[in-house]
Amino acid sequence: MTCTAAALSRPSAFALRWRERLQRAWLQPELRWLGAILVLAAALRIVWVIYAGREPQGVHDPIFYYAYGDAIADGRGYALPDGSTAYYPIGYPAALAAVFALVKHTPIPDNLVLTAGFFQAFLGVATVALAFELARRLFSPAVGLMTALWLAVFPNLIYHTATYLSETLFNLLIVAALLVLLAVDWRERRLGWGRLVLFGVLLGASALVRPISLLFLPLLPIVWLAAGFGWRRSLGYTGAVLVATVAVIAPWTVRNMVVMDAPVIISTNLGDNLCMGHYPGATGHFALPERCFAEEPYLGLTREEFEVRRNNDNTRKAVRFALEHPGYELKLLSRKSYYIWKHDHDGLQAVESYGDDRFIGASLRTALERTADVFFFVTISLGGLGLVAFVAPPWEGRRLFTLLSLLALAGVPLVFFGDARFHVPVLPLLAVSAAWLVVGLRAAPGLLAAAAASSKGAGRPSAAVEIAEAEPSVAEQDALQDA
């Protein structure tokens, strides 16, 4: 009995290992700073969720996401009252459904709004942590910490925490996918098959939230060839990622083929989104024109038939209009860009159900809008200048892929219509480039002083040599930390 009690009182080997790891982590200043930043990120998001979390109102995207998540959690499937649907990608409603099911089928209090808000707060904080590691791997711990702080206090990302929109989940999946692919040094020109499969799985999951991430696939062989991987390895690696991505998406596609009786790969809202951006009189902004949303041609159809047929019809209308009016399409590009980058308080609009549930005082709303917009314009200004980080010497294929991914996320919405919500997935990567620029500007005076001092002393090594000798490279930092 005594021996058994003594054995139970001793910490297990597993506990000892974790305690040692935590002690080693605490000795690293950057990890202590990261911990403080993550606490700040969590506090801001939790406070906002408690204040702004509400059931969505009106007929907008959030109320449909909420209803779909609730229906799936109740076992009613992905459906509307008049039949099954595939109108929105399944990823975000499925995530909400998992959270709702946890609440409904466990002793957790049945507060769907608060639980979903805390779930998204967790996603937001996790994104901050992953972005730190991504920026650290690409540049340095200092850039990683600045990126984490930037995202922790980013107003619109905090506002989105209390909304029923897919951006918070999508951002997490994109940053996680990039980190998995870019965490190792590409100079060896060898990537593990497990890493490639995990990247493909995350990419497939992100595509089920917002399919725009599928544009990463054709970028892979281009960047790997540029990085010297060779044709055989580049195509083999791309094939592995493609297979993993398809494996994630395929079950949903099969469901759509059975339920919708049509080859719907992810969703049936592609045609509507295209048509809203390509029709006579299009302004480049969100609209519901009669040309795209007339009801008469689809009277008498079932929900499934209606969605499939209108999706196909609107896709054809949009493509035909774009081909027949190339000059007007060029004008639309500038208008769409304006509406995409016009402001950065769309998350604030969403928590108030786009005007259908105004609960924030006018003066506070104005202050929150201006804070978000100022922070946003500073970010895109510094981030735009900092994009040179991704192509500056020493050149790296990993950084080039990050830049192309950023441009892809920013450019794909121009195919559809302009809305401020569409630029949100670009913000984490813009924060990385902005952080790189700020860290570089902070270090510049010290570098200039070192250079001036070295020029006065005969026979002394240059400032560049001193810096190179004093600080390990990013690869060496990674190896030390991994060890």
Search tags:
single chain; 483 residues; mainly alpha; two-stranded antiparallel ribbon; 22 helices; globular; disordered C terminus
Please describe what this structure looks like:
- With 483 residues, the protein is mainly alpha-helical.
- The protein has one domain.
- 69% of the residues lie in helices and 1% in strands.
- It is built from 22 helices and 2 strands.
- It has helices at 2-9, 13-26, 29-52, 61-73, 91-104, 112-138, 141-152, 155-160, 167-182, 193-207, 216-226, 231-259, 270-277, 290-293, 303-324, 326-340, 346-351, 362-386, 397-411, 427-456, 463-470, 474-482; strands spanning 79-80, 83-84.
- Strands 1-2 form a two-stranded antiparallel sheet.
- A hairpin with a 2-residue loop joins β1 and β2 (83-84).
- α3 (29-52) runs parallel beside α7, α6 (112-138) packs parallel to α9 and α18 (362-386) crosses α20 (427-456).
- The longest helix is centred in the C-terminal third of the chain and has 30 residues, at 427-456.
- It is globular, with a radius of gyration of 25 Å.
- The two termini are 41 Å apart.
